[in-house]
Amino acid sequence: MAIDLNRFIGTFFDEAQEHLESIEEQAMSLATPGHDPEVLNSIFRAAHSIKGGSGTFGFNQLAEATHEMETLFDDLRRGRGQADATTVRLLLDACDVFRAHVARLKSGDRRPDHAMDQLRERLSGYRVEAAPVTPATAMAEAAPQSESFFVEAKFASDDGEGYGLFGDPVEKPAPAAAAPSGGDKFGFFEPIPDKAEGAPQAKTQAEQSSIRVSVEKIDRIVNLVGELVIAQAMLQQAAATASATADERLAHSLATVDRNTRELQQAVMSIRMMPMEFVFSRFPRLVYDVSSRLDKKVQLRTQGHETELDKELIELLVDPLTHVVRNAIDHGIEMPAERRAAGKDEQGTVSMRATHRGGSVLIEVTDDGRGLDRERILAKARELRMPCDDAMTDTEVWGLIFEAGFSTAQKVTDLSGRGVGMDVVRRNITSLGGNVHIDSVKGEGTSITIQLPLTLAVLDGMVVSVGSEQYIVPLEFVAEAFQPKPEDFRSLVNQPAMVAVRGEHLPIVRLDEVVQLPGAGESRGEPLCLVVEVDNRRAALLVDGLVGQQQLVVKSLETNLHKVQGASAATILGDGRVALILDVTTIVRAGTGRAMRAAA
Predict the structure, then answer these.
(1) 460-463 long-range contacts, Cβ below 8 Å, gap at least 24?
(2) What is the SS3 assignment for 474-492?
(3) CB 440 within 8 A of CB 371
(4) Can you list the residues of the chain whose pLDDT is less than 70?
(5) Which residues contact residue 597 at a Cβ distance below 8 angstroms, ignoring those fewer than 6 apart?
(6) In this predicted structure, what is the pLDDT of residue 348?
């Protein structure tokens, strides 16, 4: 019976991408003296897997090029040469060409690829320096090599090693060996283990068995569960208004439905969660490339690989983090000679760390470079006619680098100097419902902390009222809520309205003016202030009342209606009404901006 291989072609492309990521991740350790020999074996097996699948589907150019890579690494692991920085560069360039070629094949383009022919010739013509023969090398020479290929799907084998669609082991990349002090010129990747070394690692169910499911199916389930949660909230609210003499069995049943619905929601949302390892794995290559181009010595350390974040957020997080890490190497880490003169190790360190804090994820990118120069930033801000003065706190000064067009680079390069970068970081992060904070000490380094919600599908929010309408303020922006007294308000000529909060005077942003309700500014009784924090600045959001705190299902406005100024999304309340989720960042910036312009 003939096998229809077209059923498996999508899986091949997915596995080819995973193998290329494995090769690229481990490549940087090859130039490190005393690297783990298993790295060579792993790269060989990944190339062999791609070659086998390519041959099955008739992707001859890919099969021929990966065969040359396989041959090269078979020679290396047999001791017929020794990898160096040139080998690493060849391997990284090959991954780039392979990735572009796989993308062409995936799009249906089967035309000959000239870049693949050039790569195959480059791989076949590459020669490495001979290495001394060791007992381990002799054993590798004697080990039989299997060239068989078969189509098989295997899960949860006896030894715990899973197999992919095409029969070759699908391994999680082994951690790259840590380089000694003063190691590779271009840096290396040094993951920090999340658990103590030597501790037994129990095999989880996820490691023993897995199944590929399309993202569209998962999103469909998430949306259906969201509708179920909304329907359950409506039912619960309707039951709450019933007579107190209602059947107790009905109340018990509703409580059971509520509990099971919440558990189902949490279980479904966990399907979308992915470990930060998927983000961190992209940065060893970036650090290697940028540091080599700048002739700097930089090592990357990562921690918190198992910290989970929504898949959608992970995909959108890569670009902002790329800007941050590139800036840390370009602007933060000094040249080796400058670091030696400052009494530092000539190899700089960029650290990435992810942790959970409440309902958020904190991602910290820290470097041990020169730190931010306060006076230089202020001078540049004055040159660009930005509002600033010497009385500004360090936090306020650091915030200036997020303004559009701001750059202190001495010259324009393809890495920096055009004033495009950190403003993009802030804009992208705030669009995800997060915020960015900077700490820096001159001469010691800089730390940039990004705070993001765990998911974009569910939101913890504060329900507030303005007149007869209700709005949602994301809880992560809310520092506190309080009832101000009349004497707490300050109103001076040509100055923005302020409210006193324990000795601190905060600018007031009136929500009724923002949403432009009829009768804005009219007294509706005693107002309530929410202290919100945006861009390291605090403001008082003035509302009529506080309804309560709820976990809400987020609905996209642009998908279901159209974009609404000042609102990031919408939700459906328990009474069936639609409530807008406020874009606090935009509202506070616009409100305080108007106040500053009025004062000027």
Answers:
(1) 460/359, 460/549, 460/550, 460/551, 460/552, 461/549, 461/550, 461/551, 461/552, 461/571, 461/581, 462/530, 462/546, 462/548, 462/549, 463/546, 463/547, 463/548, 463/549, 463/550, 463/573, 463/579
(2) EHHHEEEEECCCHHHEECC
(3) yes
(4) 1-7, 127-212, 240-246, 358-359, 407-421, 492-496, 518-525, 535-536, 558-560, 591-600
(5) none
(6) 94
pLDDT of residue 366: 95
Tell me which residue of 489, 487, 481, 526 sits closest to 507, measured CA to CA.
489
Pairing of strands 435-441, 567-572: unpaired
Handedness of CA 118, 120, 123, 125 (dihedral sign): negative
What's the CA gap between 585 and 435, in Å, rounded? Answer: 9
Tokens matching residue 295: 């002739």
How do residues 370-412 score in pLDDT, each as one tens digit? 999 888 889 888 888 888 888 888 888 888 888 877 766 555 5
What pLDDT does residue 303 have?
A: 93
For the stretch 424-427, contacts whose Cβ atoms lie closer than 8 Å and that sit 24 or more positions apart, written own/partner, are 424/319, 424/320, 424/323, 425/320, 425/323, 425/324, 426/402, 426/535
Here the tokens at position 102 are 């796989």
Tokens matching residue 543: 């509302």
The H-assigned helical ranges of 328-373 are: 336-341
CA distance 449 to 38: 35
* Of 474, 449, 442, nearest in space to 552 by CA: 474
Write out the two tokens for 370: 């020169």
Q: How far is CA 188 from the centre of its chain?
A: 21
Q: Retrieve residue 382's tokens.
A: 């004055």
Residues 446 and 440: beta-carbon distance below 8 Å: yes
Query: Given 3-state DSSP classes, what are the helix, strand and coil percentages for the chain, each rounded to the nearest 5?
Result: 45, 20, 35
Instruction: Determine the 3-state secondary structure of 362 from DSSP.
Output: strand
Q: Please, are residues 79 and 143 in contact by the beta-carbon 8 Å criterion?
A: no
CA 563 to mean position of chain CA atoms: 25
194 Cβ contact partners less than 8 Å away, ≥ 6 residues apart:
303, 304, 305, 306
Does an H or E element contain 436, and which?
strand 435-441
Digit-coded pLDDT (tens) for 108-163: 888 999 999 999 999 888 866 544 444 444 444 444 443 333 333 333 333 333 33
Distance CA 47, CA 42 (A): 9
Does residue 151 contact residue 56 with C-beta atoms inside 8 Å? yes
- DSSP 3-state of 395: helix
For the chain, report the end-to-end CA distance as a whole number of angstroms.
82
Check residue 163 and report its DSSP letter.
Answer: B
Strands 504-510 and 537-543: parallel
- Encoded tokens for 529: 């202030």
Q: Which helix (H) or strand (E) holds 570?
A: strand 567-572
The CA–CA distances, whole Å, from 44 to 75, 116, 228, 575 equal 10, 19, 49, 60
Count other Cβ atoms within 10 Å, centred on residue 132.
Answer: 7
For residue 50, what are its two tokens?
A: 């791609």
The pLDDT assigned to 351 comes to: 95
